[in-house]
Design a protein that fits this description.
11 strands; Rossmann fold; Sig_transdc_resp-reg_receiver; DNA-binding; globular; Arc Repressor Mutant, subunit A; OmpR/PhoB-type_DNA-bd; 2 domains; WalR-like
Length: about 230
């Protein structure tokens, strides 16, 4: 999958044994790793470290993982980083809150190191594959540039987290074609990541809030499509 020595992972968890376990396994895989034992410290480290991936617990002192994720998405240094939640909480509302604030994946504890490393490697493999296919799509005043992961409307640049960007770009690549939620989950999140179908709805809503209502249309009872205006 390429040289992992250039890939950085930040682990944020208040359990020392989990930090030690993940740091050991990630370094063994060849990743550069930093750790933090609470959310506030994690955000501070992320500014300088600029990780491509963040492993983030939900229940932590001082600042929980959901708020930490929101702040990481607001930082230019981590706006497009992968964020994977690691948590003992399996309630649906926790999972929805995680994805609404920009998570890419959600894994329940106890952690199985080999399975987790395989999933992390898969995230980076898909990212490399996508970057090889550099494209720019322009529709009216909207421009979507995969080369720089930027979106502009009327010349003004707006910021989309990675999964929101990929959803918009995928739909724009296939204009006027309707995709159901399972199609979008498969193409955007991949078969090795388990997320709820309603995660697609959350991401579509957030994209619409940023680029406007007119581009992505809901086809009732079927799914979503990108309309050529």
């Amino acid at each position: 999958m390429g040289n992992k020595q250039n890939l950085k992972v930040l682990v944020v968890d208040d359990e020392a044994d989990i930090l030690e376990l993940l740091e050991y396994n990630l370094q063994k895989e060849g990743y550069e790793v930093k750790t933090a034992n609470d959310g506030r410290k994690g955000v501070e480290i992320a500014r300088d470290f600029q990780p491509q991936l963040v492993l983030l617990d939900i229940m932590m002192p001082n600042q929980d993982g959901v708020e930490t994720c929101r702040q990481l998405r607001d930082l230019p240094e981590t706006a497009n980083s992968f964020i994977i939640f690691l948590t003992a909480r399996s309630e649906e509302y926790s999972e929805v809150a995680a994805f609404e604030n920009g998570a890419d994946d959600y894994i329940t504890k106890p952690i199985k190191p080999r399975a987790l490393m395989s999933r992390i490697n898969a995230f980076f493999r898909r990212d490399v594959k996508k970057k090889k296919d550099n494209n720019k799509i322009s529709v009216g005043s909207l421009t979507i540039d995969r080369t720089s992961y930027t979106v502009t409307i009327d010349g003004k640049q707006i910021t989309l987290p990675k999964k929101e960007f990929e959803l918009l770009f995928f739909l724009a690549q296939n204009p006027n074609k309707v995709f159901n939620r399972d199609d979008l989950l498969q193409n955007i999140w991949g078969s090795d990541v388990y997320v709820l179908a309603r995660t697609v709805d959350v991401h579509v809503r957030k994209v619409r809030e940023k680029v406007g209502e007119g581009y992505i249309t809901t086809v009732k009872g079927v799914g979503y499509k990108f309309d050529l205006l």
